[in-house]
Write a structure and sequence with these properties.
Helix content is 58%, strand content 4%. By secondary structure, the chain is mainly alpha-helical.
Length: 530
């Protein structure tokens, strides 16, 4: 298994960054250039609509107001990041006043049905709709705090749906307005599988970058091009970095180097620079010589800028990730230098001690754990997670992290036990179902011979399914479908089919209660025919 790749997948909604051993001497230094003023946090609150989602959209239409929809979950670290930074920003709270703000928690009744309707999958998702309920844009996570204000203000000012802008970009780009490029640059492409027509090439983003007169928008669109290109070329096994072919110079080095040379552009592109270092460095758009230079510059800039006050604590410590990524890409599993480990641990300890709010810590501790594991400091990660169990408002999330950590270290029994504890401690209908399914999958993966435990846990989980919790919608259905497939594969060849028969009987009884001609009924029946 490629360890850095598996860690990156686990934490994909987050961001990161940094420098090589030769550039590590000044690793704790802050960049003094272009520091952005820290957003003012306020005791005021967003006035979320008091009513159902449907009522919220009806009210918005009647009042001719746009809608700002937030979709999240209480356990979700990036959700807590948004709630404890962006949603407490005085500027952002003011920006939401012309909107009808709707708060949709994934564990609410029918939340997963709404998630399907809006085409959302990951937590958090933030969508702006016009008064008629037409989607305008999706705001990404992981950007600099002040930019949430400008993106929301832009969507209010022009109310031009992103789908329309994409169509113009493909068929008539000369009709795009300057502000359209900014909206496209700050769209959450990774959270909307329907945002681009099938087969749209990654070069769409590089073309947009070339046409944009806005420096920051151009930089973000170019980085999105590189990320999209990595997705186009990524093989099925996702081991992109193992067999990188010799690269050729295409001008990509000059573009990325120019972004890294500018503190302003580095902050504007913090999400892609921090989180997609491995994917972008694996592309053959850089010559081998260029890639060596780029890695050093990339690492150095993000480490130096990580303490910018306009970045949240979790985003600040993410500045370490490119250094760690590039070190292990270049050196295999050779450990980091002692001086780097010392600076890293000191920085993460300060970040841990800095945040006392239990909800805000969900994001910070999750990020620190990610970095410890990326640095192969597994004992430190284990101690951090254990200590957080008594402080966290959602300890089951960190129990799952302990399970993943144990599995990474091939501690099978410990991994299964932590997964069990996480399931038993979880709360909320959709959350409990997801955690229960994860526990069953863990047993199948690590202890497939434990027939009795798999059968008992599965039957107990089936018994928890309630008719009104949108079982056949959204995240719930994706979890259910995946679990159904794994249980079928596990039981294949066994003499008794009791478990699958029990599962199908429960599904059949729930199918009969679904409304006719609905997606839920179609999804339900698909499980019985598979």
């Amino acid at each position: 298994m490629n360890t850095s790749r598996s860690l990156a997948v686990l934490f994909l909604l987050f961001l990161a960054a940094c420098d090589s051993a030769d550039n590590a001497a000044d690793i704790s230094a802050d960049s003094s250039a272009d520091k952005v003023q820290e957003p003012i946090l306020s005791a005021a609150k967003i006035h979320w609509f008091d009513g159902s989602v449907e009522q919220g959209f009806e009210f918005a239409k009647a009042e001719n107001k746009p809608v700002y929809l937030y979709w999240g979950a209480v356990w979700c670290p990036p959700c807590q990041e948004i709630k404890n930074t962006v949603f407490k920003s005085k500027q952002f709270i003011t920006q939401t006043e012309p909107f009808v703000p709707i708060y949709l928690d994934g564990d609410m009744d029918h939340a997963q049905t709404w998630g399907d309707k809006f085409g959302v999958k990951g937590y958090p998702t933030m969508i702006v709709f016009n008064p008629d309920g037409e989607e305008v844009t999706r705001i990404p996570g992981g950007i600099e705090l002040s930019r949430y204000n400008s993106v929301l203000a832009l969507s209010l000012a022009q109310m031009r749906p992103t789908t329309m802008l994409v169509d113009l970009a493909i068929n008539n780009p000369d009709k795009l307005q300057p502000s359209d490029f900014v909206q496209l640059a700050y769209y959450s492409w990774g959270q909307d599988s329907n945002s681009l027509p099938e087969g749209a090439p990654a070069t769409l983003f590089s073309d947009l970058s070339d046409k944009s007169s806005d420096e920051e928008a151009s930089a973000r669109l170019y980085m999105e091009y590189l990320v999209a290109l990595s997705r186009e070329l990524e093989p099925n096994d996702s081991e992109l970095t193992l067999d990188r072919e010799a690269g050729i110079s295409t001008g990509a080095f000059e573009r990325v180097a120019a972004i890294l040379d500018s503190p302003k552009l580095t902050l504007a592109c913090w999400d892609s620079l921090a989180y997609y270092a491995e994917e972008i460095a694996a592309l053959t758009v850089f010559s081998d010589e260029e890639l060596v230079k780029l890695r050093g510059k990339w690492q150095a800039q993000l480490v130096a800028m990580r303490h910018q006050p306009s970045l949240s604590t979790a985003e600040q410590v993410a500045g370490w990730l490119p250094l760690l990524t590039f070190h292990f890409m270049e050196n295999g599993e050779a450990p980091l230098e002692d001086s780097i480990i010392t600076d890293l641990k000191d920085d993460l300890t300060r970040a841990d001690e800095k945040e006392s709010n239990s909800f805000a810590r969900q994001s910070v501790v999750n990020r620190i754990n990610h970095i410890y594991q990326s640095a192969r400091l597994y004992d430190e990660a284990h101690a951090l997670l254990l200590a957080e169990l008594d402080r966290s408002e959602s300890p089951y999330y960190f129990m799952s992290s302990l399970s993943s950590l144990a599995e990474e270290q091939e501690k099978t029994a410990e991994a299964v036990e932590w997964s069990r504890k996480a399931y038993e401690a979880s709360t909320g209908a959709a959350t409990r179902f997801q955690w229960g399914a994860s526990y069953i999958k863990t047993i199948i993966r690590l202890a497939p011979e434990n027939n009795d435990l798999i059968v008992k846990t599965s039957i107990d989980l089936f018994a928890e399914l309630k008719d009104g919790q949108s079982v056949f919608s959204g995240r719930n259905f994706r979890v259910l479908r995946s679990l159904s497939r794994q249980l079928s594969e596990w039981q294949d060849g066994k003499l008794e089919n009791t478990l699958i028969e029990t599962f199908h009987a429960r599904v059949q009884s729930m199918c009969e209660k679904q409304a006719p001609a609905t997606m839920e009924l179609t999804n339900c029946r698909s499980l019985l025919s598979s």
